[in-house]
């Protein structure tokens, strides 16, 4: 065997190994993207719309983006997932054609939600209701729920109400945290001035949890 041929063999195997490694990395990236740990890609007008069940929150993500592009759905943490959901229900993503809807639940599973919003009086700038009280009233009306789970849900409402954000400016929110096993979201709008066309603070409290019996 010539010296030249012997020298080419290691280079040949090195090239094959590099190609195999590259192929493995590429395929790993493709498969890893659609996992809770790495997040999901939802293509424009993807059909059927994918169901994503992460951190005990199941949603169907519909991408009808106004820019006709795929969208990345972050799910690694509870905070990332709930922030995406909130934006798809009432924020930037909703305004640009990305929406979410509730998953169909098994017959023994229920989604319990309570939501309260409290505006203010333009004359006194004082709250005209208690967002926690509104949400608690809804919790009292839940059906198909155990007494202990209802108690935990109401405790989460009170916890959320005591953790309203307080910064100035536009919408500030807290989300992605659990209390008594329930997910909760709060938001608070603090306006810069008391002009008559400016409603002042608006408070929102929301808790939710899927429970299967």
Verbal overview:
- By secondary structure, the chain is of the alpha+beta class.
- Helices cover 34% and strands 30% of the residues.
- The protein is built from five helices and nine strands.
- It has helices spanning 3-32, 78-90, 92-95, 131-140, 147-161; strands at 40-42, 51-54, 57-63, 71-73, 98-102, 109-118, 169-179, 182-190, 202-212.
- A four-stranded antiparallel sheet has the order 6-9-8-7. The chain has a three-stranded antiparallel sheet with strand order 2-3-5.
- A hairpin with a 2-residue loop joins β7 (169-179) and β8 (182-190).
- α4 runs antiparallel to α5 (147-161).
- The protein starts with a helix and ends with a strand.
- The model is unreliable at 2-31 (pLDDT under 50).
Descriptive key words:
four-stranded antiparallel sheet; single chain; alpha+beta; 34% helix; 5 helices; disordered N terminus; 213 residues; three-stranded antiparallel sheet
